[in-house]
Amino acid sequence: AAASSGYGAMATALLSTPVKTDATGSFNVTTSFTCPSSSAPIYLVARGGNPGLAAGTNNSALALMVALGPCAGVSAAPVISINEVTTAASVWALAQFMNPGANVGTSSGNAPGLVNAFAMVNSLANVASGAAPGPALPAGAVAPTAELNTLANILNSCAGSNGGTGECAQLFAAVTPSGGTQPTDTIDAALDIALNPGQNPGR
Questions:
Q1: pTM for the complete prediction?
Q2: In whole angstroms, what is the distance from residue 118 CA to residue 2 CA?
Q3: Interaxial angle between packed helices 167-175 and 145-159, expressed in degrees from 0 to 180 and rounded to the nearest 10
Q4: Which residues 6+ apart lie within 8 Å of 74 measured at CB?
Q5: What is the mean pLDDT of the chain?
Q6: Which residue pairs from 47-52 have beta carbons closer than 8 angstroms and sit at least 24 positions apart in sequence?
Q7: What stretches of the chain adopt beta strand conformation (E)?
Q8: Cα–Cα distance between 94 and 76 in angstroms, integer?
Q9: Per-residue pLDDT, 24
Q10: Is it the case that residue 77 has pLDDT exceeding 70?
Q11: Which pLDDT belongs to residue 65?
């Protein structure tokens, strides 16, 4: 659950034990959890694992997320997808509320701003299918679908690798802002791009 004690403050884990996917990447949240409040915005983060490579591969740089919205409404969602598209949409909508480590939060005085940012994700991406745009896109509005898919492809170059060298190293070096700390996973790389869009766009 997103924090209410400050921008990018430490989020609250709602599951005492992380859920693991099966070999196809599917997962089930069968453990009950308690919402901090019915309106508390919640999101999912998936970290590490084998992206479909040789047995025994664990890409520790793989980190994906999807912003879901008010906690009370999430139990009604039968299917949730978490992939590079939902990650790009979530990070770009929530960037002003995020810190590295996939922590999302706001000040107590700007709860509506965070709620609006979470709602924006549902316009940019469909959290059930994992594709862009989302079902909440207003009639007549145009989502930056091509840009979201391009950003998703950029993240996939690292997420779909073994994470050790190559694609991840190139991505992390390219997105690190001058004087900044190099990211170590794809969510933090996406955050660097969102906050510093002029940083090495060619690369």
A1: 0.94
A2: 10
A3: 130
A4: 42, 68
A5: 92
A6: 47/185, 49/20, 49/21, 51/159, 51/160, 51/161, 52/160
A7: 41-47, 63-70, 98-99, 103-104
A8: 23
A9: 87
A10: no
A11: 98
